[in-house]
Every structure is written in structure tokens, then in C-alpha cells.
Amino acid sequence: MVGDLSFITSQKKSVLYLPAKYIRSKNGKKFVYLKINDQPVKTDIKTGMEANDLTEITSGLTEGNRVYLAE
Which positions fall inside the CzcB-like C-terminal circularly permuted SH3-like domain (predicted)? Predict the structure, then answer.
């Protein structure tokens, strides 16, 4: 018999997060592209916990920001 098992090692409430595919990194700094006046604007961010495909954003973004998916 085979099954899947997962453990919860840490949990936070009321956090801002993004799918990891939106986050870019260069020279050790993480950033995203925000949509401001219909233009992409590079914005530095700081991240926290990562789980599955989601990354906690600890600074640099606020709820309601619109983020571009960079290619």
C-alpha cells in the first residue's frame, strides 16, 4: 500500500504571498514587476516562508498591488 504524507512544520496567518513564478532574483536580491500606469516597474521585495509554489512577501508589496509575470 502506498500513500502521501505531509507535515505542517510552521504556519502563519494573514500573510501576503505570491506564486514563486512571479519572483525574480539577480545578484542575491529578489524583485517583481509591478503594474504602475500600465507599465512594468521593477520593485525590490523581501521574502519569508516558502511552501509548495507560494512565497511569503515580507516587504516591498502591499495587498492590491498588481504584479506582472516577467518572461
Answer: 19-67
